[in-house]
Amino acid sequence: MTIPAIGKFEISVIDSKNTFFVLDAPGAEGYVIGRSDSKSNYIPDIDLNDSDGLEKGVSRRHAVLVHSQGSISVIDLASVNGTFLNDSRLEPHKPYELHAGDELILGTLPLIFHPKPE
User: Fold this and answer.
1) Helix locations, the chain, DSSP H
2) Lower CB density within 10 Å: C or N end of the chain?
3) Beta bridge partners of 56
4) Is the pLDDT of residue 3 over 80?
5) Taking every pair of C-alpha atoms in the chain, what is the biggest distance, in angstroms?
């Protein structure tokens, strides 16, 4: 099942019971996923710094979640260590539709996506 671009969805860090994000479906701007950087004062919309993002190879601006043709898609932002969707490396700057239960790996940090019933 695709994750619809309406309502809420949840992103969980796999192997972490306490790290998850509940978000409204992305609008026109989308959500940047990455890690904060105190030297440049950069903070992404979804900050994975507290989930060992730096150690696991997450770039400051690693990927973006966007509204695309009625569902949520992910786009790799030419990250250094790559973005993987269900074990397949994503081509940078190309949208890939997300489905419930998809595993997204940024560098080596695994995430899972689910729609969130209201």
Assistant:
1) none
2) C
3) none
4) no
5) 40
Sort 21 into a burial class: Cβ within 10 Å, 0-12 / 13-18 / 19+: middle
Looking at the 3D structure of the chain, how many domains does it have? 1
pTM here is: 0.88
Is residue 79 one of the residues assigned to a domain? yes
Alpha-carbon radius of gyration of the chain? 13
Give the DSSP letter of residue 35: -
Q: What tokens does 74 get?
A: 């992910």
- CATH number of the domain within which 24 lies: 2.60.200.20
| Confidence check: pLDDT of 45 > 70 | yes
pLDDT score at 25: 78
In a domain, 31, yes or no: yes
